[in-house]
Amino acid sequence: MADADDVRRLALALPHVIEIDSEGFDFRVADKGFVWSYPERSPGRPRVIRTDIAVLYVGDEAEKQALLLGEPELFFTTPAYDGLPLVMVRLAEVSAARLHELVTDAWRMRAPDALHGDLDERAGPSSATPA
């Protein structure tokens, strides 16, 4: 089980990440978002920032569909995200290790190739994936 603090800790541990001031959490690398709080919208109601749900960049439609179909208890989407390489993850349902993998993969897909070496330099015995 993970929460917004876990997202923040994992995202800020990655190189060149900045947190954008928001009602929830919003992380960027090279001015590109890779994980943020879900801005839930309901007709006739104000937007609600959900910090119990993270929006993750997944790269492409095939990856999105694989996650949605393979683990529907963990991932979902809404019509507002149709055609976008983004999924929502229920933080209460994801392990810290899986969240680490998801956030790191989202970072890798959004960071320019020139920055990938900085992540690899941080890898090693002291940066083992959390259990």
Primary descriptors:
Aspartate Aminotransferase, domain 1; 25% strand; 6-stranded antiparallel β-sheet; disordered C terminus; 4 helices; single chain; 34% helix; alpha+beta; 131 residues
Please describe what this structure looks like:
- This is YjbR protein.
- The chain has 131 residues and is an alpha+beta fold.
- The chain has a single domain, classed as Aspartate Aminotransferase, domain 1.
- It is 34% helix and 25% strand.
- It has helices at 4-12, 61-70, 96-110, 113-122; strands at 17-19, 26-29, 32-40, 48-57, 75-76, 86-90.
- Strands 1-2-3-4-6-5 form a six-stranded antiparallel beta sheet.
- Helix 1 (4-12) crosses helix 3 (96-110).
- The longest helix has 15 residues, at 96-110.
- The chain is globular, with a radius of gyration of 14 Å.
- The protein starts with a helix and ends in a 9-residue tail after the last helix.
- Residues 124-131 have low confidence and may be disordered.
Tally the helices: what do you get?
4
- Beta content comes to 25-35%
Shape: globular
CATH architecture: Alpha-Beta Complex
The top-level CATH class is Alpha Beta
Number of separate strands? 6
Mean pLDDT: 90
| Helix-residue proportion | 25-40%
Low-confidence stretches: 124-131
Radius of gyration: 14 Å
Note the run of SSEs as H and E: HEEEEHEEHH
Strand order across the biggest sheet? Answer: 1-2-3-4-6-5
Main beta sheet strand tally, sense and closure: 6 strands, antiparallel
Protein name: YjbR protein
Organism: Micromonospora echinaurantiaca
InterPro entries: YjbR/MT2646/Rv2570-like (IPR058532)
Pfam families: YjbR
